[in-house]
């Protein structure tokens, strides 16, 4: 028998073998998957509001650590027990214009709405804990009158539970009023100072250059901070708020033009000028703030709720006594100045600074019911415009400070 011609044993067929898909099959599968994904997102957006930060397990904003909650998005929920520990309009640090009940507002429901973030709970504000953490420190609010709204709210929140109210006082004996450009409240028992600097643009407002045309009434120096900035250095917490005045109505239409490096720029856009002013502020902070100890916050834009006209054409906001709960009806668009602020925050994070974006725009836009409206300070003429920009206290700014407290805790304050 010829061994070379011996038949080799045959391998049994592999019943589990599958042919590998070709490139055309893979392309069809990918197209089908993408189509289903897009359809699902569109359908879900029709059923419930779309929050970009919920699409991924982390927020698009890099201003918070990835293991913390983004408190910016959520919903207002009615809570009969909220607030369980809250100040009243008897707080001595309230501007008369924010005391809505005292000025005739009949309803009290606007203080019973609690902010509920998506996917987590907002830490309960603990005034005693905040005071202890702030011992021997200085907290500065700098910006427009909306910033004063928040500053007064924090003062009253921190005053709660203090056994000796007389130990908390304005260092220079000044009354709490929106007409004062600088106020400093001292908590003597804690060696804590909380200050407010009224600087609506943050940068310097100057006389126009000698060679300017008559249409130029003022120059907004986007390359130079307000003189108050020399007093901000050394603060442990800085909260900047701007945006309320950065509009064409409050700049260009008033004859206020932007100046940079000694020259007026008659064509500079308002948002471009706002961005340059924040770059000026960023440069100051990098040079004057301790990267290890100073906590810096840029608070986002606080929406207004004028209806049937603007503030000077009969606009009003006295018809609402509850937040907007239908998210599809809410006019909540991320304003351009928020994007500018967030970019500056990211740049400062790259420079290893303790900086955070205090984004209150979305939650505030839902609170059309929280303004003083026609319930303004005593002596206001009946024909005066309604106040649909500022907020009743107690009220919405208390939630801003709850977010401030939570973000300070997340950053090791």
Automatic annotation (TrEMBL):
Ranges for domain Trichome birefringence-like C-terminal come to 122-406
| Domain named Trichome birefringence-like N-terminal: residues | 68-121
Q: Name one GO cellular component term.
A: Golgi apparatus
Q: Which InterPro entries match?
A: TBL, TBL_C, TBL_N
- Bilayer topology annotation: Single-pass membrane protein
Kindly list the residue ranges recorded as spanning the membrane.
26-51
Q: Where in the cell is it found?
A: Membrane
What are the UniProt keywords, alphabetically? Membrane, Signal-anchor, Transmembrane, Transmembrane helix
- For this protein, what is any one GO molecular function term? O-acetyltransferase activity
Q: Which family does the similarity line name?
A: Belongs to the PC-esterase family. TBL subfamily.
Write the protein's name.
Answer: Trichome birefringence-like N-terminal domain-containing protein
Q: Which organism is it from?
A: Centaurea solstitialis (yellow star-thistle)
């Amino acid at each position: 028998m010829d061994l070379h011609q011996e038949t080799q044993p045959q391998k049994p067929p592999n019943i589990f073998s599958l042919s590998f898909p070709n490139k055309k099959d893979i392309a069809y599968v990918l197209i089908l998957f993408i189509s289903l994904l897009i359809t699902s997102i569109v359908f879900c957006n029709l059923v419930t509001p779309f929050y970009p930060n919920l699409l991924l397990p982390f927020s698009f904003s890099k201003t918070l650590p990835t293991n913390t909650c983004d408190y910016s998005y959520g919903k207002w929920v009615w809570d009969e027990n909220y607030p369980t520990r809250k100040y009243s309009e008897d707080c001595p640090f309230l501007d008369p214009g924010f005391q809505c009940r005292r000025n005739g507002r009949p309803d009290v429901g606007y203080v019973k709405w609690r902010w509920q973030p998506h996917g987590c709970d907002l830490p309960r504000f603990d005034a005693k804990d905040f005071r202890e953490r702030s011992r021997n420190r200085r907290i500065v609010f700098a910006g427009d009158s909306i910033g004063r709204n928040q500053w007064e709210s924090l003062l009253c929140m921190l005053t709660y539970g203090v056994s000796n109210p007389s130990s908390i006082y304005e260092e220079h004996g000044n009354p709490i009023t929106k007409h004062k450009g600088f106020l400093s409240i001292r908590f003597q028992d804690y060696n804590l100072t909380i200050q407010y600097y009224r600087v609506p643009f943050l940068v310097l407002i100057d006389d126009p250059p000698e060679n300017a045309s008559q249409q130029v009434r003022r120059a907004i120096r986007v390359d130079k901070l307000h003189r108050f900035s020399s007093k901000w250095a050394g603060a442990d917490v800085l909260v900047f708020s701007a945006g309320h005045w950065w509009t064409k109505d409050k700049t260009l239409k008033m004859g206020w033009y932007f100046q940079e490096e000694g020259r007026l720029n008659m064509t500079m856009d308002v948002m471009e000028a706002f961005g340059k002013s924040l770059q000026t502020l960023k440069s100051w902070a990098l040079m004057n703030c301790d990267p290890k100890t100073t906590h810096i916050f840029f608070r986002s834009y606080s929406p207004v709720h004028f209806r049937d006209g603007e503030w000077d054409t009969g606009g009003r906001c006295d018809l609402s006594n509850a937040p907007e709960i239908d998210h599809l009806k809410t006019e909540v668009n991320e304003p351009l100045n928020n994007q500018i602020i967030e970019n500056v925050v990211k740049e400062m994070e790259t420079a290893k600074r303790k900086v955070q974006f205090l984004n209150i725009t979305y939650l505030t836009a839902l609170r059309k019911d929280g303004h003083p409206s026609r319930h303004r300070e005593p002596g206001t003429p009946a024909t005066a415009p309604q106040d649909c920009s500022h907020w009743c206290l107690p009220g919405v700014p208390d939630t801003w400070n709850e977010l401030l407290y939570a973000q300070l805790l997340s950053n090791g304050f």
